[in-house]
Amino acid sequence: MNIETTLKPKLTKDEAEKNHRVGLNKLLRIRLANSVFAAVLTVTGLTCRYFFPEQVQFSELILATAALSVALPVFYEGAKGLFSRQPKFMTEQLVSLAILASMLQGDFITAALIPIIMVAGHLLEEKGIIGVGEAIAAMKKLHNTKARLVEGGHEKFVEAEDLKVGEIIACYPGETIAADGIVTEGESFVNQAPITGESVPVDVYGGINVFAGTINISGKIFIKVTKLPADTVFNKIAALLEEAESSKAPIVKIIEQYLDLYFPFVIMVAAITLFMSGDVERAVAVIVISCPCALVLASPTAMIAALVRASKYGIMIKNTAFLEVLSEVDTVIFDKTGTVTLGHLEVEKIEPEEGIEEDKVVEIAGICACGSIHPVSAAIVSYLHEKKIKIHVSKYQKEYHGQGVEASNESSKSYIGKLSWIREKIGFEAGTTLGDTDKITTWVSDGKRILGRILFSDRPRPEMKETISMIKAKGISEVILLTGDKKEIADIVGDFLNVDETVAECLPQDKLNYVNTKKCCGHKVMFVGDGVNDALALKAGDVGVAVARGGSDIAVQNSDITLSSENLESIVKMFELSDITKNIITQNILIGAGFSFILLALASMGMVSPVVGAVTHNLGPVFVVLNSARLLKKQ
Questions:
Q1: How far is it, in rounded angstroms, from Cα 382 to Cα 388?
Q2: In the chain, N or C terminus with fewer CB closer than 10 Å?
Q3: Which of 214, 209, 181, 180 lies closest to 197 in space, CA to CA?
Q4: Nearest residue to 210 (alpha-carbon basis) of 444, 589, 550, 468
Q5: In the prediction, which pLDDT does 125 show?
């Protein structure tokens, strides 16, 4: 699914507020008003019949008017069902038949009460169901509609939707951050739970990314806007929820294929009941009770509850079908860099040459690294800051792409980079006593000799080893690591994480081919990645999971599930949620079908009247909704 946002005409504030409201749909509001009107007429007609028995025709006219007024919207929806295979129209068609049958035998009281009771049931379903609309509306209320724009040293309030990339905004303690951006000044703790699901506030300072919809806790910060409002993580999450609301579980799609046979079956049972008993009321009761409301709600209620539960874990599921596919996955493939590792280099060890002090190696490395944007240089500078070592700045600096960095003053030159390049720059075969290593390495020279080398590593995420162990405990037969790194580096990470197989030096096409090969062998594959080079594999997997924070938008667009938190323990929760949701949908189907068939048998035997049947029939959807709501309580 592509979640690119198309720019829309700007809405007024009133229009925006209207769009955020969630309420009863228009037709249900009409039917509710009609039901109240019909109820009043029915009571009036019954009162007239009781007090003025001689005015039979007048009281019957009032009752007929009541029945007709409440029946018209039902007839309208039933007629629409003639041109649509959607199961929701089947209820209206069956109720329409029940109303007509009651009217034909002159029972206008039953003809009025049945649709009134059914509307009460629809109202219960509409308000009792855990609606994504309510969840999205609640989310949007979290989003700050105003932003403090900083211009010329002054702050002014503007609409958040009017912000442009590159502008600076201020955010005070207790305020909601209005846009995705980078902190340029100030320090604070930010509650990112609404977006990432992380319960612990995050420390933010200069250079750290922050997200719209998160809450500034402790200090004033200035933020440079990096994304248009329509492209923020917050709005993408809302879009994913809206799209997922309309999706269906595969098991429900299979059931819907056979619903075409359900309508003739009900008519046949009603006809047999009428033929055997000669009682029209029994046939009407059969038709009313057969309305498949509970069955229609079996999947949507569970799926929507699962989506709300997943969002609290920082898991955004674009299509609920993948909740069911997850239960069939037997192979999980991880990208390495930025997915199972932190995605940035860290200094692991300083190795000076014999007779050289470690401090000297660090000092020269710092002179060259300061000002360079290369990941190796960034790791060195970060190391110096962490160790509180003073950084000396060179007068001149030049970076040679793919080779190293040269720093110089009037009388000296220093180098960090590849050993062969340094030897070329200083003009002779500088010797070294250090042996070979499989680590990521940069060499350091003062322009006269080799001073030593610095070893780097991209550390695995702290939770990954346990996460992979828990994934295997869920019944996954293979966990595989794919990476573009050299085999020696990949094997170190793979061995540490205890994966079943490590495949190194992979290009994007290689990752795609590997996923397709696994699928051709009959495996159900889940691929987890975060970069542009993972997009093909994410799309090819039976389930593609993108790590959104710090990840590529292209990876997110080509995935089926997006993790807005970097903590990959949420993958384990995905499998747990999939199993629970599938079980609850099955339970809901059994509840819905079982409830209907029991009442159907009772109605055909004359033990349940049409009005009582309409009342008890609405208990099925209530049980389904309550059963689905259990998902919200799962931790």
A1: 10
A2: C
A3: 214
A4: 550
A5: 53
Contact 115, 74 (CB under 8 A): yes
Pairing of strands 413-417, 404-408: antiparallel
Quickly tell me which residue has 């579980």 as its tokens: 249
- pLDDT at site 9: 37
Q: Which residues does 395 contact at the CB level (< 8 Å), separation at least 6?
A: 408, 409, 410
* Helix locations, 129-170, DSSP H: 132-142
The pair of three-digit structure tokens given for residue 473, joined into one six-digit string: 């405990």
Q: How far apart are CA 181 and CA 225, in angstroms?
A: 4
- Strand-strand pairing, 413-417 and 331-335: unpaired
Kind and range of the H or E run holding 316: strand 315-317
In this structure, which amino acid lies at residue 410? E
The owner of tokens 């502008």 is 167
Q: Residue 148 in 3-state DSSP?
A: strand
Question: Which of the 8 DSSP states describes residue 160?
Answer: G
Task: For the chain, give the longest Cα–Cα distance.
Answer: 123
Residue 127: what pLDDT? 53
The token duo for 261 is 């046979």
DSSP 341: B
| Residues in CB range of 72: below 8 A, 6 or more apart | 34
Q: What are phi and psi of 370, to 5 degrees?
A: -60, 120
DSSP output for 421-436: HHHHHHTS--------
108-128 helix and 26-51 helix, angle to the nearest 10 degrees: 150
Encode 255-273: b = buried (16+ Cβ within 10 Å), e = exposed: bbeeeeebbeebbebbeeb
What letter would DSSP give residue 105? T
Tokens of 125: 């379903």
Burial of 162 (0-12, 13-18, 19+ CB in 10 A): exposed
Strand partners, 527: 333, 544
DSSP code of residue 107: -
Torsion of CA 455, 458, 461, 464, to 10 degrees: -100
| Residue type, position 555, single letter | A
Number of helices (H), then strands (E), in the chain: 24, 22
Note the pLDDT of residue 516: 92
Over the range 366-397, which residues count as b (16 or more CB within 10 Å of their CB) and which as e? bbbbbebebebbebbbebbeeeeeeeeebeeb
DSSP secondary structure letters along 65-88: HHHHHHHHHHHHHHHHGGG---TH
Listed residue (530, 565, 464) closest to 200, CA to CA: 565
* Whole-number Å distance between alpha carbons of 394 and 387: 20
d(C-alpha 207, C-alpha 297), whole Å: 47
State whether residue 188 is helix, strand or coil: strand
**C-alpha to C-alpha distance for 267 and 250, rounded to whole angstroms:** 28
pLDDT of residue 527: 93
Q: What is the pLDDT of residue 160?
A: 86
Distance CA 206, CA 269 (A): 72
- Residue ranges for the chain with pLDDT beneath 50: 1-23, 128-132, 135, 138, 197, 199, 244
- 591-600 burial, b at 16+ Cβ within 10 Å, e below that, comes to bbbebbeebb
